[in-house]
Amino acid sequence: MKRLLGVALGILTAIGGFVDIGDLVTNAVVGSRFGLSLIWVVAVGVVGICVFANMSGRVAAASGRATFEVIRERLGPRAGLANLSASFLINLMTVTAEIGGIALALQLASSVNYLLWIPLAAVAVWLVIWRVKFSIMENVTGLLGLTLIVFAVALFLLKPDWGNLASQAIPAVPAEETGATYWYFAIALFGAAMTPYEVFFFSSGAVEEGWKIKDLIQSRINVLVGFPLGGLLSVAIAGCAAVVLLPAGISVTSLSQVILPVAEGAGKLGLAVVLLGIVAATFGAALETTLSSGYTLAQFFGWSWGKFRAPAQAARFHLAMIICLLVGLGVLATGVDPVLVTEYSVVFSAVALPLTYLPILIVANDPQYMGRHVNGRGVNVVAMIYLVVILVASLAAIPLMIVTGAGA
Amino acid sequence: MILGDLLGTPVHDDDGVRLGRVADARFVVDGAPHRLMADARLLGLVVSPHSWSSFMGYERNSLTQPWPLPQLLRWRHRGSFFVMWEDIAVLGDRSVRLRPGYTAYSPALDRKGQE
């Protein structure tokens, strides 16, 4: 019974934890501009993150090493440092976007300018990282994030023409968009679903919670059930935008437009629930990304790390996270639009993805680390297909960004 | 000189023929014992004729999965070899020179991770 509860809790937090500011903004932007014609990318991204998280979780459980410990060991210091710099900077960008997201959601709830909420949000994130136990932190934000199901509820309440909506789901470039913007947003959506921090966090979390081989089944269920259901939330967000915003000719540029369909479909109560959900989801993701920045640095440089240690025992790890939060605060204090930061962060996430994916794929095949838990043939075939997809997305992202003027 | 400066340095034999670049250094942990770990001793250098980019560990083992990555990386580092510290004559800033009659070992390790 306890085991069953554990599995249920794991799945629920995986669903609630799947959506972050990147998914919210990108899915809404895509829904409002392309309808459901890009929805296949969410499926591609969800399968990809399942493959990636499954491998990195297995590496962490079998070898006791988290992602960046593996990268440092396997790539050596030179290639490892280039890798760290890119991954770390993009993660920092995501931290900034998530904190901005918390502040924007609080602005919508309170009408107090988001700039005033930013320091509060950052301090709250820091306090939770400093004080709250890892499992409580993960479960509470994950479960509260589940309230984003209101997007699915709102989609039903909007009573869309389901046949028409389903016919939109065929991949095709809408008349008023170009092929380049279509593929640019395909990469953005892919990057939003497969953000690298999810994997840093997932593998480091496995070490934090002391996973052993016998816990792998549970983690596999969490991933293979939780992430696809989380992906359905993404689809619901895009669906809401496609039903309300696309016909009205509104292309999403702010968080208030993301939740507009929920207000229309589910009224004031829905609005209250969606704001709670967004705050929980962005707060949870802010915790995960901030921890990830600490994890990546500490694992690369060999500092002691982890929330299972008292902060005094992992001083550099905690100091690094404080500095990251301050940098994020500084960037947001310039008044840059957090939604814009988010849009860039998901694309750069796609650019940096091969840097972490490749070493994990290699180590997951190495019996010296993995014993008999190396990748099976089937996993390797899928993983190699994804390596190609990830490489193509990574290489195409920046040229497409330039050609399309970042999707304008 | 730090190890980072050594990586990528061209390697020549005694006649000045260029053999490749330093791709990696290999240590054995058999020095003076300490509480946690013994001191490391530099056993020798891995020299690669074509590229000094990362081997991603494939020079050490005979793994073939996931196809075709190991095959590609091995091809990129074809002809790479390991020279013992005793066979190195000069360790300069610009180049490393080997002694005449040096022995080029295979960079692979056996299954226990030993030379």
Automatic annotation (TrEMBL), chain A:
InterPro entries: NRAMP_fam. Keywords: Membrane, Transmembrane, Transmembrane helix, Transport. GO terms for biological process: iron ion transmembrane transport. It is found in: Membrane. The keyword tRNA-binding does not apply. One of its GO terms (molecular function) is manganese ion transmembrane transporter activity. GO terms for cellular component: plasma membrane. Its main location: membrane. It comes from the Bacteria. It is a multi-pass membrane protein. The keyword ATP-binding does not apply. The chain crosses the membrane at residues 37-60, 81-108, 114-132, 139-158, 182-202, 223-250, 270-298, 319-340, 346-364, 385-406. PANTHER family: NATURAL RESISTANCE-ASSOCIATED MACROPHAGE PROTEIN 2 (PTHR11706:SF33), SOLUTE CARRIER PROTEIN FAMILY 11 MEMBER (PTHR11706). This is Divalent metal cation transporter. It comes from Arthrobacter globiformis.
Automatic annotation (TrEMBL), chain B:
This is PRC-barrel domain containing protein. It comes from Arthrobacter globiformis.
